[in-house]
Predict the structure.
Amino acid sequence: MNQKMLRKPRKLIVLSDSETSWNYGYNPNQRPLSELLSVGCVVLDKHRGPTSHEVTSDLKKILNLRKAGHTGTLEI
């Protein structure tokens, strides 16, 4: 590629302009905990000792969740 091709201005293509309707979903700052837990994640710093499985199990009990899991390993 030559320098002229790299400096060519790009054109923004907008398919449609729209605004968010508050009739659907939640304001992010007012979203209920139950909604956050159903589609969200919990970030924690696991200390040495309990296994990843034990921490996940404890989290399910504390938050009264039916399903929970971890990604990768939580071990140091």
Notes: Helices lie at 3-6, 33-39, 52-63. The chain has three helices and no strands. The mean pLDDT is 79.
